[in-house]
């Protein structure tokens, strides 16, 4: 087959088959892992830029596959989204996060990531509200992180649903702001409690005058509209200094802390002294 290109076509198709098969295997494993409660959560702290105190933590999903080892959350979340498992997984993670948060000091809020698909199904607000009731976590201690991807699907419905969640006392965060399909018009429709500037801007901070200008502009927007501004993915002291100077209200990143087990969050009491 060499020379006429058929060999390459064959192996390309074979590769696609192998990928699809692998995906199906992973999906089956994920389905079982979700049912068995094997998807765990770790929590990465956010710090006030003013006081250095931990104000909240972000719940991040973890899956340690029995043979593959750790699977990245963006990988298994997208498998869950494509296979209709996201609703069940999302509900379970939300319940786990609320349960864990109940054992922490009261001033620490917990932020849970929501997949855009969790907005597609009816009754999100009712399900969240049931979880709060069942776990006893005050709504004021729960934050939900949504991405811009969610807003573009069905703008009207999304904002109505967000308002209903907000009415419960839950805070709504715009995650990964500035990449994807950001539209400033969202801020005319809904006042997010916090906006998280995507890590890519933080990464370019030292080398790009433009990134600095973007962050400054978002901070200005936040001040004007009463939204806290978080910088995520802070890795160096230089970035930290610049971000504080620019007026970011909260910082998150490996410089301060990696994601930690729920037990460790419970031991957080005072300041880190980093900021
Ligand atoms: P994300 O929501 O933007 O979460 C932040 C990611 O950045 C996390 O990766 C976190 O570990 C990582 N990170 C934090 N600080 C630093 C840093 O200083 N440097 C670097 N290089 N990375 C940092 P992780 O845990 O791998 O999660 C990746 C993505 O998977 C998340 O991005 C989120 O989109 C998704 N994800 C994770 N857990 C969940 C979940 O429970 N539900 C949903 N729907 N999505 C989730
Ligand atoms: Ca997030
Ligand atoms: Ca993020
Ligand atoms: Ca991100």
Automatic annotation (TrEMBL):
Q: Where is the EAL domain?
A: 23-273
State the superkingdom.
Bacteria
Q: What is this protein called?
A: Cyclic di-GMP phosphodiesterase Gmr
């Amino acid at each position: 087959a060499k020379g006429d290109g058929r060999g390459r076509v064959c192996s390309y198709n074979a590769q696609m088959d192998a990928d699809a098969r692998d995906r199906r295997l992973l999906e089956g494993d994920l389905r079982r892992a979700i049912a068995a409660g094997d998807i765990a959560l770790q929590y990465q702290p956010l710090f006030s830029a003013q006081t250095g105190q931990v104000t909240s933590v972000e719940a991040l999903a973890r899956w340690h596959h029995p043979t593959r080892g750790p699977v990245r959350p963006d990988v298994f979340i997208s498998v869950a989204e494509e296979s209709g498992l996201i609703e069940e997984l999302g509900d379970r993670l939300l319940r786990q996060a609320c349960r864990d948060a109940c054992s922490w000091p009261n001033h620490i809020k917990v932020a849970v990531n929501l997949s855009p698909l969790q907005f597609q199904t009816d009754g999100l607000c009712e399900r969240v509200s049931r979880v709060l009731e069942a776990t006893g976590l005050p709504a004021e201690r729960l934050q939900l992180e949504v991405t811009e991807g969610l807003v573009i699907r069905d703008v009207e419905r999304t904002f109505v649903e967000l308002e209903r969640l907000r009415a419960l006392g839950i805070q709504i965060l715009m995650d990964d702001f500035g990449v994807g399909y950001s539209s400033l018009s969202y801020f005319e429709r809904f006042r997010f409690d916090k906006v998280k500037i995507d890590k890519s801007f933080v990464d370019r901070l030292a080398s790009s005058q433009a990134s600095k200008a973007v962050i400054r502009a978002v901070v200005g927007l936040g001040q004007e509209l009463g939204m806290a501004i978080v910088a995520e993915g802070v890795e160096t002291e230089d970035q930290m200094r610049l971000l504080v100077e620019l007026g970011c209200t909260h910082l998150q990143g490996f410089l301060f802390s990696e994601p930690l087990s729920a037990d460790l969050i419970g031991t957080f009491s005072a300041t880190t002294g980093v900021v």
